[in-house]
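Render Arrestin domain-containing protein 3-like in 3D.
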Amino acid sequence: MSFTIKDIKVTYNAINEKNTFTSGDFISGQVTVEVAKTAEIQSLLVKAKGKANVMWTERHGQTTVVYHDKEKYFSLEQFLIREGQNKDSNVIPPGTHVYPFTFQIPQQNMPASFKGSVGKVVYSLETKLSRSMRVSNKAKTEFAYVPKPDLTIPDLMLPQYGTKDKKMRVFTSGSVSISTNMEKMGYYLGEGLKVMAEVHNNSSRAVKLKYSFYVKHSFFARGRRRVHTHEILKEQGEPIEPSTQRNVTRVLNIPPDIMTSILNCRILKVEYRLRVYLDVPYASDPEIKFPVVILPLGPDMSNMVPPNPDMNMMPPPPPYSEVGFGPYYGPNQPGWNSSPYPAPPSINPYQNTSEQWRCGLSDLPTHSRRVPMTTVQACRQLPAFTGLGCHDDSPLDSPHVSGRGIQLTNPLPVGELQGKGTAADLRDQNLKRTTLQSLQL
């Protein structure tokens, strides 16, 4: 700082207890300039900016490669003292001078403030004081931006379902299976994750049901990706003895101060996963991974849980003319951010169904398509039979999900077609037709 300009700083006024801002909010503040003697100011500028950037280095032999990228969201500016104004207005006497300002944060879909190991999303206020033939004086402060909850994410409030079987080989005999159900994929900060599991232990050893909730940070630049994972919490249940079947319900208390999910940034992502697995001695552990989206708290928390989840969480089924044997979402199926197959909204999510009805789209028998039946989108509305898929994940590879299952009700009786009367009606019609033919003869 020069002898003339003793101090310069930019501050803002909080609008809530958490000192956060969101899209559409007005952020007001002041630039404070303290001068030791009369100074002629060329210009005094304040900016509000939002941007993301990533940078890391990698060693390839004797060469160090820098990977860097950035994304700009907005840049707003105001001149508090403009160059070319009345010369007298650009001269300030000794003392402390305060210049107020106000910006409105743009109504855009922007990621939350974030700082990671090799990338960050920063929202800031910057001021710059310029004088002729002098080095400019600058100051900067950052403010926390929290986006509004994005409820348009596919399958956000739909149930999730997964199953996994494991056959033992060397040191353990028999098999184990786990079926897991979650109420939804999206959770607000501080909300508990309710996990329901059904475990069949047909092996020769006791197993334990365990839970691991972790975050994955992904950074992208120049076609490369850097991934960091961190386990947030880990819990386990009681041992499940051999030849035992058990239903387990557990609520995981997620820390309320964790970072919200970031899925709307091109160069970095913050994603959460819940790993539910069986700890099997002397064998690889069968596991199911669910994506979890952590939403920021909205202004109206009545939106957290619908009054009647069974009615409001799921959209109505599509018209019968739109139902076929292809995916309901069309050719562009959701990626790994989408949930595993949603669970049927029945009272008992683990109802047993005959194996012949558990089929995927590609495995549907040809003859069954000729039988009159009602088809609806998988796991969306009716508690009937569901197709199952397999799920996998790794920090560097996206999972491969099998074709979406379909839900089939029991075939209608012969002659009982939709909109064409019941079998009894058809019998009455046939009897009348036969009687008329007899009278004509």
